[in-house]
C-alpha cells in the first residue's frame, strides 16, 4: 500500500485530502507544519508527499529540499494558492515533481497520485 504524507497548515485542506486519499486506498498521515512533517519522517517513510508552499516556520520549498535528500525515490507535489513563473522555478529547483493550484480538482489530484504510484512501483521494481 502506498503511503502519502499531506502537509498543509489549513485543517480543512488536510482533512479533505486525507479523506479522499484514504477512500482511494492510500494510507495517509498529515502534518500542519514543516517541522511536524520532519518529525514524522524521522519515524516513517512515505513514497508520495504533498506540501503546501506557504507553511509557517519551515516553508514548503525548504521542506522539499530536506525531504528530497531523505527520500530520493519519492514523488513530492507542491500545493499553492497562486503560482507565478518565478515561484514554479523555485519549486523545480527545490525538487518538487509537480504542483497543484488551489482549489484543486479532486479528480485531477487522484489521477496524478495514481500516476505517481505507478512511477514509484517501476522505480522500486528496478531496485529489487
Commentary on this structure:
This protein is α/β, with parallel strands linked by helices. It has one domain (3-123): Rossmann fold (3-Layer(aba) Sandwich). Helix content is 52%, strand content 20%. The chain is built from five helices and five strands; from the N terminus they run βαβαβαβαβα. The chain has helices spanning 11-23, 34-43, 60-70, 85-94, 106-127; strands at 3-7, 27-31, 48-52, 75-80, 98-101. The chain has a five-stranded parallel beta sheet, sandwiched between helices. It is globular.
CATH topology: Rossmann fold
Low-confidence parts: none
User: Roughly what percent helix?
Assistant: 40-55%
What profile does the largest beta sheet have? 5 strands, parallel
Assign the CATH superfamily: Response regulator
Structural class: alpha/beta
- Count the beta strands: 5
| Overall geometric form | globular
Report the average pLDDT across residues.
92
Strand order of the largest sheet: 2-1-3-4-5
> Total number of helical segments?
5
CATH architecture: 3-Layer(aba) Sandwich
Tell me the domain tally. Answer: 1
What sequence of helices (H) and strands (E) makes up the elements?
EHEHEHEHEH
Strand content: 15-25%
User: Span from first to last CA?
Assistant: 17 Å
Q: What's the CATH C level?
A: Alpha Beta
Radius of gyration: 13 Å
Amino acid at each position: 500500500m502506498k503511503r502519502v504524507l499531506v502537509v498543509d497548515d489549513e485543517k480543512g485542506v488536510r482533512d479533505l485530502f486525507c479523506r479522499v486519499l484514504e477512500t482511494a486506498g492510500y494510507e495517509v498521515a498529515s502534518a500542519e507544519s514543516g517541522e511536524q512533517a520532519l518529525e514524522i519522517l524521522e519515524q516513517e517513510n512515505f513514497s508520495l508527499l504533498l506540501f503546501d508552499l506557504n507553511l509557517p516556520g519551515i516553508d514548503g520549498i525548504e521542506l522539499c529540499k530536506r525531504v528530497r535528500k531523505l527520500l530520493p525515490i519519492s514523488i513530492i507535489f507542491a500545493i499553492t494558492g497562486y503560482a507565478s513563473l518565478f515561484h514554479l522555478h523555485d519549486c523545480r529547483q527545490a525538487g518538487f515533481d509537480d504542483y497543484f493550484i488551489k482549489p484543486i480538482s479532486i479528480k485531477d489530484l487522484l489521477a496524478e497520485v495514481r500516476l505517481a504510484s505507478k512511477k514509484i512501483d517501476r522505480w522500486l521494481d528496478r531496485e529489487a
